[in-house]
Each structure stands twice: as structure tokens, then as C-alpha cells.
Design brief:
466 residues; alpha+beta; two-stranded antiparallel ribbon; 13 helices
Length: 466
């Protein structure tokens, strides 16, 4: 009815001062990427195939800023835009109460050389290496000296990318080969030349915030099935209003290059706002043997890992921190990680009536797979792959107190008032109906002796409404 139309306009991401549009364009709550890197301390043992021993360094707090440009609000209820995300190191939060300060621009640690492992992996998968190719790669490796399986880099280099000397040598022989290693796409690369498109929910609130195009793609180019490549879900700031506890919501996670469902697990208060809490369902993390639908994502390894190899051209796997909800041998074969616990899970909280995100804690661990190879004696003592944790990244965000109060006053409270008015009017008309029936009954009883007397005066026609 009229109230539903008013409410749909209220939550739509439309220009002209709506709360959702202003927060989508210029988010005011603070969003942080919190990074902990994992320093490998027993390099030679790992090179031979023994279990890695890691020491964690961090956490480093980076404030995330989102800049939207070239925004076009189309008549088709679509919003076209380009987006840049950039990060500023928060020294105060990172080093509060810390005796020895952390500096991501200076702090170095040892980790797997993603360029080297990527080259070896792709050469192996392509059916082997020709003698000429092997000579070229060996020559490049000789130039690098010991910088083959491992590399010693700063935190900023690993997170935001760096020029790799191996790739720099190989580009002479392989035209078009990129020379920059980007370990975390969402923090190190953003193509500002391509448009993304979301639905503003103006004509259909169930599509509020949903992607129809991401970075120029209507369909993703990375995966092995049409279903896996389908672009579903929102960017995670807004969801369809009037959520139901028995239904999941879907987000598109650009860190993982895929859409992820989130299932309802309960109800909690966030800054005085009743919110539905969601988490990643277990079937998303199952391998293709246990969940055949995940074959489209090349999930043929251990359960608990998301295979990103096709998207980043290197054997990179994402997992929950400390391999939470993964096969137990993965955490057992890494020395130094914290034991997994439920506080390491990814959760989002959504106000169910408006679909507004009230709180988010998104957590993932980036791992690199290494396998036995005759290249420099890699993993000579082990045939089974190993998964070496590189970094753990936690994204936090949500409403602040001011925005929560604004949501209550501009949308949440008017909604309650609106339903109160509807129920009030319903009660009023119900009372009128009772009074009318009572009066009519009294009139009939009073005149029941004259059954021929019409209720409608003679000469008038009865108005009948169908």
C-alpha cells in the first residue's frame, strides 16, 4: 500500500538526501583492515618439506577509505560508478601500549616467494618446461641467489604489492608478463577504468544494493561453471529490507572473487538496534567431494580452503584464521599459529527491516601452497602439499553511535510509528464496525414486528460495491 511505497523510497539508494545514498557515496563509519603477518623462522626445514614454524607480527591497523567517482544514477534504477579503495596506516591504534612500535614500511619478515612459486606452479600445470625455458628460469634464479622459495619483505610490500626481480628478468622472454606481485587484491589493486553497477532498490527493494556488474564483468571470468561465475549479492553495506530468519543473504566478496551466502544464526543488539546475525555456512568450505557444487570453484583440495589460484595465477588459498572449520591436519602441520576458536569466524549483523548493515567482522587467512618439485630441491622430503600461512586480515566496520541514532530517528522509528498508525486505524475501523453492527441490530430488533418494512427507503437504489 501507500506505506510500503513510502518505506521503499526511504531505504532506496537514490540521490536527493536518502540516508542509504549518502552512506553509500561517502561512508562515515570507520572501516579498518587489521593485518597480522606470519614470519617463517625455519626456512631450510620448510625447503626440505618439514613443518613450517611461524611467529606472528602485528596486528597493523589500516584505515580504509572508499572513493566513488563518475557516479551515474540511471533511469533504470541502476547506479554506475567507479571505486577506489585506499588505506592509511593508523599508527596510534597500532602502537597503543606497545613498548616496541610497529612500522609496516620498515618491518620485514620471511614468507613464501609468491612469484617463484607461481612460476613453478604454472610451468608444471602447463605440461612441463622446455629445456630453453628451464635455462632461462634457472638463470633468473641464479641472479636472485637465495631469493627463490622465500623472500624477505616489508609488511607494506606484501600487502600492497612490490616489483619482483624474478618477474622483471622473465619479462624479457615473456612479453606482457606483469612484474608486480599483489598478494591481497583488494588492498593492492583497483582498476578505476571499469564501471561497477548496483541496483538502487527504487522499484524493487529485494534488489537493494545487488551487483549487476563488477569491475566491468557481468559474469566472472575465473571459475569453471556458470553458477560459480554468476555475479550474485551486494557489496555488503545494504541488503534487501524485511529479512526473514529462515532465509540467507548473499554478499559478493572481492577479496575472494566470488559470491558467498551467509546464513542466519541468531538475533543480537547492536548499539540499541535489534539485528540479525549471519555467518558463512559450512557447505561453502567443503571440497568438491563433499559438496559437488564447489567443483566450479576448483575446490579439490582439503575442506576448509578456498582456491584462488585461477584468479591470482599463483597457488593461493584462503581460509578462516588458524584454519578454523578446515581439516584438522592443516593446523596440526603449522607450528606457531593460535589455536582456532569461534571468535575467528566471519559474521555480519543486519537490521532486518531496513536491510542496513549494523556491524561486520570479516576474517580470512591467506595461504600459499607449495608442492614437491625438482626445482631447487623444493620439498624433497615430502610428496603431500603444504599450506603456509602468509597473513591474516580482519576487516571491521559498521554503524557508529551517531549513525545508529540517525537510523533510529529517520527510518527505524518512523517505521514503527507507521505500523502503529496502521494498527491504530485498523482498531478504529474495527470499533466503527462493531458500533454499526450494534446499531443495525437494535434497529432490526425494534422493527422486527413489521417484516415488510424495507431497510432502504422506497424510490432509492442500493449502491453495491464489488
Amino acid at each position: 500500500g501507500l506505506y510500503k511505497q513510502w518505506y521503499q523510497r526511504r531505504v532506496a539508494i537514490t540521490a536527493g538526501g536518502t540516508l542509504n545514498f549518502e552512506q553509500w557515496l561517502n561512508p562515515t563509519p570507520k572501516i579498518y583492515k587489521v593485518v597480522t603477518v606470519h614470519n617463517v623462522t625455519n626456512l631450510e626445514e620448510v625447503r626440505m618439506g618439514l613443518a613450517p614454524n611461524v611467529s606472528s607480527i602485528g596486528p597493523y591497523y589500516f584505515r580504509e577509505y572508499r572513493e566513488k567517482t563518475d557516479v551515474i544514477v540511471a533511469n533504470t534504477y541502476n547506479i554506475f560508478y567507479k571505486e577506489k579503495k585506499y588505506y592509511i596506516f593508523d599508527n596510534e591504534t597500532t602502537n597503543k601500549d606497545r613498548a616496541t612500535p610497529l612500522d609496516p614500511a620498515k618491518d620485514k619478515f620471511y614468507t613464501i616467494n609468491l612469484a617463484w612459486v607461481g612460476v613453478v606452479y604454472n610451468m608444471t600445470c602447463s605440461g612441463g618446461v622446455s629445456p630453453t625455458e628451464k635455462i632461462i628460469i634457472e638463470a633468473a634464479a641464479t641472479k636472485l641467489k637465495d631469493d627463490t622459495l622465500f623472500t624477505n619483505r616489508t609488511v607494506n610490500e606484501i600487502i600492497f604489492g612490490y616489483k619482483d626481480p624474478l618477474l622483471d628478468v622473465l619479462k624479457t622472454f615473456i612479453p606482457g608478463l606483469p612484474t608486480t606481485v599483489q598478494c591481497v587484491y583488494n588492498m593492492s589493486s583497483r582498476d578505476m577504468n571499469n564501471f561497477s553497477v548496483i541496483h538502487n532498490g527504487g522499484d524493487n527493494s529485494s534488489l537493494l544494493g545487488a551487483y549487476s556488474q563488477w569491475q566491468g564483468y557481468h559474469k566472472l571470468p575465473y571459475w569453471e561453471s556458470d553458477e560459480a561465475n554468476t555475479l550474485n549479492g551486494t557489496e555488503g553495506l545494504f541488503f534487501a529490507p524485511n529479512l526473514q530468519p529462515n532465509k540467507s543473504v548473499t554478499t559478493f566478496v572481492d577479496d575472494l572473487f566470488r559470491s558467498n551466502p551467509m546464513e542466519y544464526i541468531g538475533e543480537e543488539e547492536v548499539l540499541g538496534i535489534t539485528s540479525y546475525k549471519y555467518q558463512i555456512p559450512m557447505y561453502v568450505l567443503k571440497n568438491a567431494t563433499q559438496n559437488p557444487l564447489n567443483s566450479g570453484f576448483n575446490s579439490y583440495g582439503p575442506s576448509g580452503l578456498m582456491n584462488l589460484t585461477a584468479a591470482v595465477n599463483a597457488p593461493v588459498m584462503a581460509s578462516k584464521p588458524s584454519f578454523l572449520d578446515a581439516e584438522s591436519w592443516l593446523i596440526d602441520e603449522v607450528v606457531g599459529l593460535y589455536p582456532p576458536n569461534r571468535n575467528m569466524d566471519t559474521n555480519i549483523w543486519i537490521e532486518p527491516h531496513t536491510g542496513v548493515l549494523t556491524k561486520a567482522i570479516k576474517q580470512l587467512q591467506v595461504n600459499v601452497m607449495i608442492e614437491q618439485s625438482d626445482w631447487h630441491g623444493m620439498m624433497s622430503l615430502r610428496k603431500k602439499p603444504r599450506f603456509i600461512p602468509l597473513a591474516t586480515i580482519v576487516e571491521t566496520g559498521g554503524l557508529d553511535k551517531d549513525l545508529a541514532d540517525t537510523l533510529k530517528h529517520k527510518v527505524y522509528r518512523p517505521r514503527k510509528i507507521g505500523y502503529g498508525l496502521l494498527y491504530g486505524l485498523f482498531g478504529f475501523f474495527t470499533l466503527l464496525t462493531v458500533v454499526f453492527v450494534a446499531v443495525l441490530g437494535h434497529h432490526v430488533i425494534r422493527n422486527q414486528g413489521d417484516v415488510t418494512r424495507p431497510l432502504i427507503p422506497n424510490g432509492q437504489k442500493e449502491n453495491i460495491y464489488s
